[in-house]
Amino acid sequence: MAQVQDEWSITAELARLELDENEELILAREAERMRELFLTMSRADADKPEPTTQAVELNNRIRPDYVDSFNNVESLIEASPEQEDDFFLIPNVL
Amino acid sequence: MPQITTNWSGVITNPERKQSYIRRVREIDKNIGSFLSFNPDLPGSDTTVKGALGGMPIAVKDNIAVTGHPLTCGSRILENLVAPYTATAVQRLEDAGAVVVGKTNLDEFGMGSSNENSALGTTVNPWNNDRVPGGSSGGSAAAVAAGLVPLALGSDTGGSVRQPANFCGVYGLKPTYGSVSRFGLTAYASSLEVIGTLTRDIDLMETAFGIMSGIDENDQSSVSYEDSVVPDSDISSVVMLSVGNDMLDDPVARAYMETGEALRAAGYSVTEISLPSLDLVVPAYYTIATAEASANLARFNGIRYGYAPDFAENPADLMKKARHEGFGREVKLRILLGTYVLRSGFQDQYYGRAQKIRTLIRKELESVFSSADLLLMPVFPTQAFLKGDSEMDDFKQRLADVFTCLANLSGLPALSLPIGVENGLPTGVQFMAPSFGEQRLFKVARNLKDTFPLQTPPNYLDIGSLV
Amino acid sequence: MKAHDKYDVFIGLEIHIHLNTESKMFCSCKAHYGDDPNKNVCPVCLGYPGTLPLLNGKAMELGYLVAKSLGCKTAIKTSFSRKNYFYPDMPKNYQISQFEEPVGVDGLVEADFGLSERRKIRIHDVHLEEDAGKMIHAGDITLLDYNRAGYPLLEIVTEPDLRSGEETESFLRDFQRLVRYLGVSDANMDEGSMKCDANVSLNHPGKGLGTKVELKNMNSPRFVRQALNYEIARHAGILDTGGSLVQETRLWNENRDITEVMRRKEAADDYRYFPEPDMPSFVPDKAFLARVEAGMVELPLEKKRRLKAEYSLTSEQAEFIHDEAATAVFFEESVKAGADAQNAASWLSSDIRKLLNRSSLTLEESPLDARRFATLLGLIKEGQISGKIAKKVLGKIFSDNLDPRDIVTKEGWFQISNPEELEVIVKKVMMENPDVVSAVKAGDIRQKGFLMGQVMRISDGKAAPELSGSILDELLGNST
Q1: How far apart are CA B190 and CA B197, in angstroms?
Q2: Which of B106, B367, C76, C286 is deepest in the core (most CB within 10 A)?
Q3: A·B CB contacts under 8 A
Q4: Does B63 touch chain A (CB under 8 A)?
Q5: CA-CA distance, B451 to B432, in Å (whole number)?
Q6: In chain C, how long is the greatest CA-to-CA distance?
Q7: DSSP assignments along A28-57, one per residue
Q8: Is C312's pLDDT higher than 60?
Q9: DSSP state of B432
């Protein structure tokens, strides 16, 4: 069980999910249950079908290279949790 | 113009009627909780509204962006977010005269089948307040069922429009993938979801769909509807998914059988079929949906908008705290699962395998529709279940998505329609059609309307009787 | 440019260039340097919920163009993938990039390292992706500017075919020249429109690739050379003592001229690539491919060789002229307008270069065009002005923006070629410098230079040198 727990801990870290002890236990258990459900997919033939990589096959949609600026840029900065002048603000990375 | 539009005209544009309407909505919704925010007086609600929908009030699920209205997605992490732009589907309806009066409650980020996963409010089923309205578009379904609006928008990723519509006794359409722009729909599972509509009037459903659908330059996965409409031939053959005896609750099973009989009586040929890959549908769906969700929800990290903790030591700490304090449990679980199935060393076995099963299912359905016009299925094994976990825990709820997520995996359109009421709760079924076959869905719904007339729950807002 | 004496050296590069488009890769915000922070942003490039990426068609064209000019097999069907990792400068915390189906693979670039052997450097792939925002650290806070988030990037990955710091620097400069020729990017490492990371490993001869070290933070081709040479020496030192290397990422410290181990980044190593569901695949059609083809130009290496052969230039001259496409165009137009190739090459690489530097202008911006240049050289050839005067005329073209002939006329700088006039001047000089004249007659030929100098001085440089010289000789001889 410890090893299974580790896998979910690693996964949580990859997803930047900080789980408290309680959550970790419950979520790991529920996640394991789902994972076991997923394993039933092995019933299907692994080799034959091509994977569906895109819901809409080919579309060749492109946007012409023109500038069309957003009309309310100020509101976007104002909406951030922390700002300073025109910058978004966070604690220092280092 | 559908009759219903005429019934609702003047509700917004006539100040007296509007006040009456607002009062009545607030009264009823106090007990139901369908709206997370009700703002009939926002700048967009012009009092001189013109267009095919002529001032019709509509409700929009709170994961779809409408400028000036909140965009909470039912989550603490976006509790304070106000949308700076409007979803294309909504814009098109607004351009046709619709007025967005409020945003409806939902399972957080669209993840759930009960509406109980909302962090910001509770919605109950208008037919029985001890029961759930279904999810994730529970608020929209309840609002329509209670008569608060004639039309509501939802999103359907694995059944999230059809199942609550079914629980609340209204029509719910999941259009063909790509036929309605996803621009403005907060992404949960990008390759599976589409904006859908809930209403009690099939003509209005068709009108709204016609207005909303079509290629959008803001969504490069949207497709042109006109090009690919399936010819509306003499629709006459229906195949009915063979469902095991113990799979459905009795009322649901009864409604299912009655529908088959009614179709035969109406001149359709009805044959039973089974889908060999049916038991692979739920695991494949959840693998793909959670994988895409894990990436789509990564953007919520307390920096550019939304919730951020008061204090964090460094950016990594900031991101983790924001997500820890901002996301509910079901969301965390699905992000965890989705991250896992994409991990190096696991991806082939899980995500890769699921995508192959997806192809299998598409092929099976293609084969079904090569010799039938419609596929009839149940929507959900039970009627609306009780609030709390007693009847249906989360895991069971997910397994029960089997009938609905077929349409999402294949991208095909499906319509859930109400059949009757038993034990004071709605029953219904769903029809699925080939790509761009929405017309045949509307047609069969019309054909069954007289046999199975829509019913209304108690405390229904009858707009006709509004002063 | 020798490879290491003792060990096999393997160097591969990951180069990123900003593509010269008007708008960003996936939205219509302006893609422009130097604007005020967070001015060129929108809900899409800020990663707002419900927004979708909208592929810039021009960026796709430029991607195919570069792939083609690097000799790649260009994709019949190309698609995007999500590269998942968290970082504050990432609006979506995944980058839309290309993984399974990039625009080009398996390319081959001929490199001219000045050696007799011509080497080919293999290109692993060329793919499109989007850039992240910028972070500015200030005390205990970090400021974020997302103007750059969503810029169109092209990443070029080479195989580990380079063998030394010098080769790599040369390759990088060639690469810069190539993409500038194509007009796809400014490719300035100090401005940030080009970045280069390197992978380097050493191994005992014949043993294949060694343990590789990734190098970052090299902000010019010169630093790339220095960093690589430093690393190679460091690896060699370790191998010499029988030690083994750690696979790690190191940063070049340009103040201390060393590489240092990088502190572990937040970024997870497992990128969990999967196909981007919001963007269908792209299959170039005939019209698209025609537009790409139209963007192809004579590539630098070909041009250099052709210039050398066609105009009988030296390697140095060809190197200089082809360095910028505009210079080469100017050169060829001048020759077409009648200039002598050798003279043109010589003037371009000396006096004209100096004037351009001093005035901070490019050739295209300067008042000197091919026609004026050809005329100027023609005036010299015809003997109408001397070389020295020509330099002054050139200066005036720059300062006054006039035609050479007009300048010469206005300044009265036409060469004095009338033998009678010249004789007067020469005689005057001889008269004013009797001692020098005697010395020359006595056999001190060197002093003749002094006399010629005086002739030039008195005539304001206008005396026709050869003719004056022969008149002087005559007069010196006659008076014997």
Answers
A1: 18
A2: B106
A3: 166
A4: no
A5: 20
A6: 101
A7: HHHHHHHHHHHHGGGGS-SSSSPP---SS-
A8: yes
A9: E
Which residue's structure tokens are 């299907």? A44
Residue appearing with tokens 């007086």 = B41
Q: What's the one-letter identity of residue C55?
A: L
Confidence of residue B1 (pLDDT cuts 50, 70, 90): low
A73 touches chain C (CB under 8 A): yes
**What is this structure's pTM?**
0.91
Q: Which pair of tokens denotes residue C335? A: 């020759």
Minimum distance, in Å, between the CA of residue A84 and any CA atom of chain C: 8
Query: Backbone phi, then psi, for C216, in 5-degree steps?
Result: -130, 175
CB-based contact B356 A49, cutoff 8 Å: yes
Active site residue B387: no
Q: Which of B45, B136, B213, B222 is catalytic?
A: B136
- What are the b/e assignments for C390-426, b being 16+ CB within 10 Å? bbbbbebbbeeebbbbebbeeeebbbbeeeeebbebb
How far is it, in rounded angstroms, from Cα C428 to Cα C142? 78
The Cα–Cα gap between B303 and B387 comes to 35
- The angle, 0 to 180 degrees and rounded to 10, between the axes of the packed helices C221-240 and C165-182 is 150
The answer to whether B182 and B215 have CB atoms below 8 angstroms apart is: no
Chain B: touching chains (3 or more CB pairs < 8 Å): A, C
Q: What's the pLDDT tens digit per position in B69-98? A: 999 999 999 999 999 999 999 999 999 999
Does C269 contact A at CB distance below 8 Å? no
Residue count of chain C, please give it: 480
- Chain B partners of A20 at a C-beta cutoff of 8 Å? 324
Fold of B15-234+413-465: Amidase signature (AS) enzymes (3.90.1300)
Q: Reduced to 3 states, what is the DSSP secondary structure of residue C173?
A: helix
Partner B contacted by A59 (CB < 8 A) = yes
Length of chain B counted residue by residue: 467
* pLDDT for residue B128 is more than 60: yes
Q: B9, B75, B160, B416: which is the annotated catalytic residue?
A: B160
Q: Would an 8 Å CB–CB cutoff place A88 in contact with chain B?
A: yes
> Residue A94: what pLDDT?
64
- Measured distance CA(B204)–CA(B195) in Å, rounded: 16
How many CB atoms neighbour CB C173 within 10 A?
Answer: 16
Active site residue B136: yes
Kindly report the number of other CB atoms within 10 A of residue B342's CB atom: 27
A window 4-33, beta carbon within 8 A of C: 13-14, 16
> Which contacts qualify for C463-466: CB closer than 8 Å, 24 or more apart?
C463/C386, C463/C415, C463/C416, C463/C422, C463/C425, C464/C383, C464/C386, C464/C415, C464/C416, C464/C417, C464/C422, C465/C386
Query: ipTM more than 0.90?
Result: yes
Closest partner CB to C57 (pick from A16, A62, A73): A62
Exposure string for B43-57, b = 16+ CB within 10 A, e = fewer: ebbeeebeebbbbbb
Domains of chain B by residue range: 15-234+413-465
Reduced to 3 states (helix: H, G, I; strand: E, B; else coil), residue B23 is: helix
From C52, C55, C88, residue closest to B182, measured CB to CB: C52
d(CA C477, CA C472): 8
- Given CB atoms, is A75 within the 8 Å cutoff of chain C? no
pLDDT score of C1:
38
Question: What confidence tier does C267 reach under pLDDT thresholds 50, 70, 90?
Answer: very low
Domain C419-478 grouped into CATH 1.10.10: yes
pLDDT tens for C357-410 read: 998 999 999 999 999 999 999 998 888 888 888 999 999 999 999 999 999 999
B449 contacts B401 by C-beta, under 8 angstroms? no
Tokens of C165: 């710091």
Farthest-apart Cα atoms in chain B, separation: 70
pLDDT at residue C266, rounded to an integer: 42
